[in-house]
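So, could you explain the following?
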Amino acid sequence: MNRDALTTPLLDASPDTALPSRYGFEVPARVESVSCARRRVSERLDHWAIGGDTRDTALLIVSELVTNAVVHTGGHLVSCQLALAGGHLRITVQDQGSAPSGPRVCHGLEEERGRGLLLVEAVSAAWGTYDRECGTGRVVWAELPYDGAPFETAWPC
């Protein structure tokens, strides 16, 4: 099977822990793939014991970025990567094609669409976008603070 940047697994082991510090996957560029991406990210965050606001916000960001990649680009695949480093959880979504202007934040309240990146901007510690180094497409990333403390799995009475 021929593999490229979108199909190469993005897993590596951190030398300091038994848990991988990066995780990546790809989904078809279809609307129904947004829920698949959320599920995979949710499973990985559970595996890393990341919960609370960080988990909820990460799932919201993944939903918005994967939706943008599916709706606004002409590619066949969307890749997603999670990385834990330097006190942050970084979420990266890459598509295979984009409109010439690339993603933009819409501030107008009258627009029905285009608020996803405004939402990402509001809930992220930092975010950005850049063109893929090879071929067409864009990369959009967002970071959330992460203190490394696992969340409580038991619900209080």
The two ends are 51 Å apart (CA to CA). Residues 1-19, 106-110, 151-157 have pLDDT under 50 and may be disordered.
